[in-house]
């Protein structure tokens, strides 16, 4: 596609949409054309801020506006519906995580993207975090030796009693699918495919009908053992949210600094300045637009989106069965 300006729209005017819009507004060849949300006041507020059209029906928006791309920030239960409708109209899609509620929906999204020859990309900001990208390069260089253990922690106290994230019909589950979608994608990005998983759920703290604390155990195809701690109900204040241990050294990806240390050495080698949320969104947005305009393959393919859904689905299954199961 050789087009100088990309007309873009947002579906779903919630908190995450603001992060996407701030990023896309700074990309020179992007024109924010419209926003859509079921709540008219939200749509109009966003539209006024970004000087674009407001809609309460995404189908009407897609039919009326000449769009090249949309960003789906609506709840997960409508991701497949919205993305397939958009792609059937030749529109490229950046879809927030979780990619879909189940493998069947994710597969239909993939088939639509292939049929209509459009870009379908799952939004996963951590793949575009500078320190995570640098960490992958360090791992692949063999600096840490053979990887043995991976740890990821996303635990922060957030009241979910009045948010759609705790409504299983809308979200697909609780903290495991919500925060876990990020965790699984990071693990797959750094370690490769996940072969086995087992999930466990903590004691319920918040009065919500879904799990508010969970732990995922996994083994990658390359035999790396991993743990992922997730919670909406407790704070686990740690300087690093990812720890990777290899036969030759340890690597830590942190909120304010990232570093690694080789065995036998006294000093930590700093390789990153920490997590910059808006920079990650900016990098992600630029990459999405570049995929549309140049035809390059997305860093996060539709296969990655599908696989993240599959691992989460298997994790829930393992939790119900209380045993390790194969991801396949």
Question: Notable features of this structure?
Answer:
328 residues, alpha/beta, Rossmann fold, nine-stranded mixed sheet, six-stranded parallel sheet, globular
Count structural domains: 2
CATH architecture of the largest domain: 2-Layer Sandwich
Anisotropy-based shape: globular
The total of helices stands at: 11
| Helicity level | 25-40%
Could you give the order of strands across the largest sheet? Answer: 14-13-12-11-7-10-9-8-15
The quaternary organization reads as single chain
Considering the protein shown, what is the CATH homologous superfamily of the largest domain?
Dihydrodipicolinate Reductase, domain 2
Written as H for each helix and E for each strand, in order along the chain, the element string is EHEHEHEHEHEHEHHHEEEEEEEHHE
The end-to-end span amounts to 36 Å
Strand content: 25-35%
Class by SSE composition: alpha/beta
Would you give an account of this structure?
The protein has 328 residues and is an alpha/beta fold. The protein folds into two domains: 6-125 and 280-298, NAD(P)-binding Rossmann-like Domain (Rossmann fold, 3-Layer(aba) Sandwich), CATH 3.40.50; 126-275 and 309-326, Dihydrodipicolinate Reductase, domain 2 (2-Layer Sandwich), CATH 3.30.360.10. Helix content is 37%, strand content 25%. The chain has helices at residues 15-25, 40-50, 58-64, 79-88, 103-116, 130-140, 168-171, 175-178, 180-191, 277-294, 302-321; strands spanning 6-11, 30-36, 53-55, 69-72, 92-95, 120-122, 147-155, 194-201, 213-220, 225-231, 240-246, 249-254, 258-262, 269-272, 325-326. The strands form two sheets. It has a nine-stranded mixed beta sheet. Strands 3-2-1-4-5-6 form a six-stranded parallel beta sheet, with helices on both faces. A hairpin with a 3-residue loop joins strand 12 (249-254) and strand 13 (258-262). The longest helix has 20 residues, at 302-321. The chain is globular, with a radius of gyration of 20 Å.
């Amino acid at each position: 596609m050789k087009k100088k300006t990309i007309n873009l729209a947002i579906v779903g005017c919630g908190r995450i949409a603001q992060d996407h819009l701030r990023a896309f507004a700074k990309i020179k060849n992007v024109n924010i054309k419209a926003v859509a949300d079921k709540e008219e006041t939200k749509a109009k507020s966003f539209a006024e801020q970004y000087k674009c059209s407001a809609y309460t029906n995404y189908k009407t928006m897609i039919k009326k506006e000449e769009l090249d791309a949309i960003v789906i920030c609506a709840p997960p239960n409508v991701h497949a519906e919205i993305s397939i409708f958009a792609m059937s109209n030749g529109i490229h899609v950046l879809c927030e995580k979780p990619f879909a509620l189940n493998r069947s929906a994710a597969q239909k999204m993939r088939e639509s993207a292939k049929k209509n020859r459009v870009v379908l990309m799952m939004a996963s900001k951590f793949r575009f975090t500078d320190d995570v990208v640098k960490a992958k390069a360090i791992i692949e260089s063999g600096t840490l030796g053979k990887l043995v253990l991976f740890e990821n922690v996303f635990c922060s106290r957030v009241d979910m009693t009045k948010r759609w994230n705790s409504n299983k019909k809308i979200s697909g589950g609780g903290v495991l699918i919500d925060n876990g979608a990020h965790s699984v994608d990071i693990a797959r990005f750094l370690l490769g495919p996940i072969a086995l998983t087992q999930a466990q759920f903590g004691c319920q703290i918040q009065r919500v009908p879904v799990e508010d604390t969970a732990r995922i155990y996994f083994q990658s195809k390359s035999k790396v053992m991993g743990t992922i701690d997730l919670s909406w109900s407790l704070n686990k204040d740690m300087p690093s949210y990812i720890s990777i241990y290899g036969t030759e050294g340890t690597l830590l990806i942190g909120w304010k600094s990232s570093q690694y240390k080789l065995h036998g050495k006294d000093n930590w080698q700093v390789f990153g300045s920490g997590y910059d949320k808006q920079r990650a969104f900016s990098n992600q947005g630029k990459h999405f637009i570049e995929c549309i305009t140049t035809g390059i393959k997305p860093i996060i393919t539709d296969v990655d989106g599908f696989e993240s859904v599959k691992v989460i689905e298997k994790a829930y299954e393992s939790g119900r069965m209380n045993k390790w199961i194969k991801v396949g």
